């Protein structure tokens, strides 16, 4: 009776650096094969074992700015002196094929996408405490003290933006947080605005007409 929209769902996941967004998304992808993770482009240098085309598309600043002018990105933002952006073409293609797409992006970019595509689901991943957040940032051992302080200060600003999101999930345990995100996505599939139309096929219509005409159901006598 209910025909749902065939297009995929666009999901944006944000949160401060160190909140565990990537861990939650990785676990989610293991359990849901109809979700595709969009790879962002960035002008920053690779960290550790990060690979081009796997973790990010790594561009130098000039190339990134050139692609901005060419309308290559669905959204882009500048964060701690580096550009981050979402390539447009692959996302539109996946959504049209009915595949759900996850974007792990910053708050500025999330706002841009919500304005362009209002049906986008915004989920904010929150660390359990600020102490846990600092511990995670230090534990990475990939950045200088000044960078860690900068990210920690930025986290305060980002957490204040949580009201702009549809959902907030506290990542105290990765499995628990992932289960909550999965439940959100399942519920979103049942939203009324995801229904394209409500229809009756021929068999159902005949049954309906038969019930109406059947005098056994007439209680008026």
* CATH topology value: Rossmann fold
Number of domains: 1
Q: What order do the SSEs take from the amino end to the carboxyl end, as H and E?
A: EEHEEEHEEHEHEHHEHEH
Low-confidence stretches: none
The H-level CATH homologous superfamily, spelled out, is: P-loop containing nucleotide triphosphate hydrolases
Number of strands: 11
Trace the largest sheet across and list its strands.
Answer: 3-8-2-9-10
Number of helices: 8
Description:
The protein is of the alpha/beta class and 221 residues long. The chain has a single domain (2-38, 100-217), classed as 3-Layer(aba) Sandwich (Rossmann fold). It is 41% helix and 21% strand. It contains eight helices and eleven strands. The protein has helices at 21-31, 61-69, 89-96, 107-116, 130-140, 145-159, 174-188, 202-213; strands at residues 2-4, 10-14, 35-37, 41-42, 57-58, 73-79, 82-87, 100-104, 121-126, 167-170, 195-198. A five-stranded parallel sheet has the order 3-8-2-9-10, with helices on both faces. It has a four-stranded mixed sheet with strand order 5-4-7-6. A two-stranded antiparallel ribbon has the order 1-11. The two termini are 32 Å apart. The mean pLDDT is 83.
Task: Give the topology, please.
Layout: E1 2-4, E2 10-14, H1 21-31, E3 35-37, E4 41-42, E5 57-58, H2 61-69, E6 73-79, E7 82-87, H3 89-96, E8 100-104, H4 107-116, E9 121-126, H5 130-140, H6 145-159, E10 167-170, H7 174-188, E11 195-198, H8 202-213
Parallel strand pairs: 2-8, 2-9, 3-8, 4-5, 9-10
Antiparallel strand pairs: 1-11, 4-7, 6-7
Helix pairs in contact: 1-7, 5-6
């Amino acid at each position: 009776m209910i025909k749902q929209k065939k297009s995929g769902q666009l999901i944006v996941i944000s949160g401060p650096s160190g909140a565990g967004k990537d861990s939650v998304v990785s676990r989610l992808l293991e359990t849901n094969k109809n979700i595709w993770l969009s790879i962002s482009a960035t002008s920053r240098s690779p960290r550790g074992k990060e690979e081009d085309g796997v973790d990010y598309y790594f561009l130098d600043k000039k190339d990134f700015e050139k692609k901005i002018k060419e309308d290559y990105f669905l959204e882009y933002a500048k964060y701690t002196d580096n550009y981050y952006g979402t390539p447009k073409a692959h996302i539109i293609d996946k959504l049209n094929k009915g595949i759900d797409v996850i974007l792990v992006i910053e708050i500025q970019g999330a706002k841009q996408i919500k304005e362009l595509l209002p049906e986008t689901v915004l989920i904010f991943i929150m660390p359990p405490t600020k102490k846990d957040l600092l511990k995670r940032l230090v534990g990475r051992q990939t950045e200088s003290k000044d960078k860690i302080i900068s990210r920690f200060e930025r986290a305060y600003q980002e957490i204040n933006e949580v009201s702009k999101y549809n959902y907030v999930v506290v990542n105290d345990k990765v499995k628990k947080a992932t289960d909550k995100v999965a439940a959100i996505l399942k519920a979103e599939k049942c939203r009324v605005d995801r229904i394209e139309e409500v229809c009756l096929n021929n068999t159902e219509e005949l049954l309906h007409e038969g019930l109406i005409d059947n005098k056994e159901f007439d209680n008026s006598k």
